[in-house]
Amino acid sequence: MQHTQSSSIPTSGTVTARAPTGTWLIRLPLNGSLLVDKRALFAASLLTLLLLISIVISLCLGATNYSPAEVLDALFGESNPMTAFILNELRLPRVIAGILSGAGFALAGCLMQTLARNRLATPGIIGIDNGATAFAIASVVGLVTSLAPPEMALIGAATATALAFGLAGGAGTRGYRFIIAGIGIGALFGAFTQLMLARAHIDVANQAYPWTVGSLNARPENAVLILAVGLAIGLVGALFLARALKILRFSEPVARGLGVRVNACRYTSLVLAVALTAMAVAVAGPVGLVGLIGPEIARHLSSTRSVPFISSALAGALVMVLADTVGRMMLMPLEVPVGIVTAIVGGPYLLWILLVSPRNTP
Hints:
The chain has about 350 residues and is mostly helical.
């Protein structure tokens, strides 16, 4: 009798879960499973491949051109000392700084756009970049502070965000009120930066100039290391918040009904975006439009069912490396700062976003 009862009840092994259309269901040990979005995986793979190609191109091109084989030999310590010095000590650290800063800007932009549900809500447009730059410039010109630029950039980014958030009032991070407040705060910090440079000694002003336009030419090594650690933490944090941010695309009552802690999610996302922007500015200066272009590329390649944090970081790194390479080669031997190159590309794209109805809003 006992045997009959047990055989009449379906076992867990007979229950089969089917993956939704466009996804793969991967079985994990201990009865676990992982749902992988096919299009998101394709986007990340394609962007990774393009990023690797752009890295090789950036290392190959310069005042002295090298073949990909010579680059690989130098990376593995099998080339002559001069080639190894140029590639490993001059070009490779610059490429690494570009990858990290571009990924940081784009990841922060994706967080802000998703949080505000607006494609224009990027750190550069809402004033976070200008706040970080103004405080970093203050440390360079020695204005009432002895803190290093990276620490001051973080303080400036947090100050700009707090002011924009406060002036937005009840709108919080939603709608155009937050963006308009951020634009105004950014303009004030930009004017403050120009005032400091105008009153500084010419040598100090020249030293601070790369911070105002965005450049990978004078990157602080400690800031690059801090950004590497911060980017890893920020990416993990963003992936942890991905489900909640996806639900926040709907109204607040719906999100609360689905168990999302709305305020905690918003504040955590805002802290991550501010920290990533500040650390990226500390390395490359205000290259703000990468935070607009990177997420847009990722969003067009990825599916709409997920928030493309990984693809945004990869796209931002790709844009930064390519822009820096173009800036180095365009008017050689003169170097065009990477911030100017991204502005040339991103400015018309920003106008296009403003003039054309958005298809895929965050």
